[in-house]
Amino acid sequence: MNDSYVDKVLIVEGKSDKNKVKSIVKEPVEIICTNGTISHTKLDELIDFLEDKDVYILVDADAAGEKLRKRFKREFPQAEHLYIDRMYREVATAPVHHLATVLLGANIDVHTEFLEMG
Predict the structure, then answer these.
(1) Is 80 helix (H, G, I), strand (E, B) or coil?
(2) Residue 15 pairs with which residues in a beta bridge?
(3) Pairing between strand 80-82 and 30-33?
(4) How far is CA 39 from CA 34, 71, 108, in A?
(5) Mean pLDDT of the 78-107 span
(6) Is the pLDDT score of 40 beyond 80?
(7) 15, 29, 65, 96: most buried, per Cβ within 10 A?
(8) What is the pTM of this model?
């Protein structure tokens, strides 16, 4: 977690998800990687860190992603959940234009060239 203030935080599952999303996003967004699971200690740290931020959850469209999403809905009811199309299953394998559209739909600024790739 960063020392400089960023008001938008995006939570993803894996490092490949983080890297893909990072290349698409144009504005400063803190991207937190859960590595598919999250401990109680880490969750408590996140609760404090995310208190006054806009939180977005972007996880895979599979059983593990849904389990994680359910936990975040309970712990961060104010978070906005972003969904990729189920046909892509994983954030890391979803086409960049699809991810850019999903992010833009949540008012996260993206590099426009990714929107034109579709």
Answers:
(1) strand
(2) none
(3) unpaired
(4) 9, 11, 27
(5) 96
(6) yes
(7) 65
(8) 0.91
* Cβ–Cβ < 8 Å for 51, 6: no
Residue 92 backbone dihedrals phi, psi, to 5 degrees: -65, -25
What pLDDT shows up at residue 39?
Answer: 84
DSSP strands (E only) in the chain: 8-12, 30-33, 54-58, 80-82
Q: Answer yes or no: are the C-beta atoms of 18 and 30 closer than 8 Å.
A: no
Determine the Cα angle at 81 with ends 79 and 82, to 5°: 140
Sign of CA dihedral 34, 35, 40, 42: negative
Rounded Cα gap, residues 52 and 97, in angstroms: 30
Phi first, then psi: give them for residue 57, nearest 5 degrees.
Answer: -115, 125
